[in-house]
Amino acid sequence: MTAGDDRAEGSTTPALPDEPGPRSWSRAFGDLGQGWKQRPLWGYLGWQDIKQRYRRSVLGPLWISVTMAVVATAMGILYGALFGEDIATFLPYVATGLLIWYFINGCILEGSEVFIANEGLIRFLPAPLSLHIYRLVWRQSLFFAHNLVVWVVLVLIFPQPLSWSLLLAIPAFLLLVLNGAWISMLTGIIATRFRDIPPIIGSLAQLLFFMTPIVWQYDTLLKNPAVAERARIAELNPVMHFVEILRQPMLGQEIVWRHWYIAGAITVVGIVAALLCLRNYRSRVAYWV
Length: 289
What we know:
The protein is mainly α.
């Protein structure tokens, strides 16, 4: 008994490593990392989303560009006539604004329902939440690439004063992608818990469209002394700054760096808010859906 007791006292049980809790930064960043590693999966799913939407149609995904061209042409001609604008400059202006707006609007609207729409996958497929965010942003990027054809055609028909500043369109679009990701993550988690959020966001998105200089020109209002002061209220709309940082280089306009500073600050604040939300509530999404 003595020898047995000695052996019992002398034996040591290996300590188990401390597992991070459900509300930990390691799990939050781990979710983002694991989702990024599954690029082949969400890349394939995003492309399949587009193919399924236009399944059995004659033009297929080309309907994306056709719809964009029809809407941009109709709105450009209509509002150009109302405001007395030159169609050669106003039509590319409206089309480029719509091109950017469609990407932003898609991330906002679909982002608020990204986890609700993927309820089955979240419940039965052990995959990181970020996979659904990557899939959504990738799908919207493909839509953007399809619609970019309309911009190319209009630039060929109505030549714009493009210059080296066109290269700024690349970091500007990457900034839009980052914001689309954090908006989808933040609103997606909140809307999963509170189902009244998606309709509210849908209504606000419609309002944002008319508050954003897409079918009207902000610079034109600033030149009018009667409304110049009130027109500056438009800069309180954060979407305006993201539209301008991409539209200005795509049309060869003068780069206004103020929009870049504001867009960068919004991006930092938004990413921090989305990471906090992911850290605290990622483990509850599967129960909320």
